[in-house]
Write a structure and sequence with these properties.
Helix content is about 35%, strand content about 35%. A 6-stranded mixed beta sheet has the order 1-6-5-4-3-2. The longest helix is centred in the last third of the chain and has 40 residues.
Length: about 140
Amino acid sequence: MPRIARRTFVAAPADRVWTLVQDFGDWHPRLNIYAGGPEASPELVVTVTERDDEGLNLSYSMPEPPFPITDHLATISVEPDRETTCYVEWSASFESDPGIMQLLEDQLGDDIFVLALDRLASHAQDEWAKVAEAQRADSAA
């Protein structure tokens, strides 16, 4: 089964990033979590299949992916690095025609995963910077 993955470094604590990962709407405006009804366009709806708060892993599938793929399963994992940094990996496995793998690698891997991970990292780092600044201000007072 083919697999596409992208990974990024985030200058924010893993627990804070994990909180953001669980709310796609904050950092990935094109994905909506399916909540029991067709309230969003079906090609952009995801169904969360597993959430592991201890292992910091979230898996989901797309009932109707916007790509010519089947048996889609994606996982977003947060891996603590140091006290205030982590890595986030986003991967997807699926079935598809081998002839379009390069296209999928570009569209899914680069156009979706990389852009969304960059947005997630920026959002997490901005929030963490505000917290760190408030902590410095409190300790200086």
